[in-house]
Amino acid sequence: AQSVTQLGSHVSVSEGALVLLRCNYSSSVPPYLFWYVQYPNQGLQLLLKYTTGATLVKGINGFEAEFKKSETSFHLTKPSAHMSDAAEYFCAADFGNEKLTFGTGTRLTIIP
Amino acid sequence: EAGVVQSPRYKIIEKKQPVAFWCNPISGHNTLYWYRQNLGQGPELLIRYENEEAVDDSQLPKDRFSAERLKGVDSTLKIQPAELGDSAVYLCASSLVRAPNTGELFFGEGSRLTVL
Questions:
Q1: Which residue among A23, B20, B63, B72 is least enclosed by CB atoms within 10 Å?
Q2: Is the Cβ of B60 closer than 8 Å to some Cβ of chain A?
Q3: Hey, are the CB atoms on B105 and A46 less than 8 Å from each other?
Q4: Helical residues (DSSP H) of chain A, grouped into ranges
């Protein structure tokens, strides 16, 4: 079955440290991939997306993600965490059926 | 530009009672989505509209859930009667073009339902 898996429901990093949020997909055909972020009391908003072309995708607020077909992964990274990055992050995929399948989310906490 | 507006933000009801959620999408967005997000889970699509037509309602529990999008703008999602398992956050989203692979979904803040 096609699915999206996010490893780690909670991730804590120190301010200024590397942020790494993991996302893997299960599908025989590579899907389109997305990262959404949900700040407290706000709706989900798109961080970045991979459809075709360059496998390293840059998004808003300094985040980027790399599509690795061999690893069926689309991990989200940011070199230096900021307090304002505290939020819940969702990886999502379109498996060709024009709807998003979301992972279970990862709550990111930034330690001062 | 105003974002996707949902109401109410919070609703607490007794089981077997009806409840309705309203969504006003971003002006000009002809695609509208209703998602349900259970605690600790990612959002799951309930129904997708292209203008006033429901083009994907395969995940909508039709025995108790109904939705409409009159005139291709605002939409209402109704549950009647509500069950304990319906407690969740109901998210509305809209997009200008057929998303997600070609466009971006814009989400509202959600309506949190608690069924007692």
A1: B63
A2: no
A3: yes
A4: none
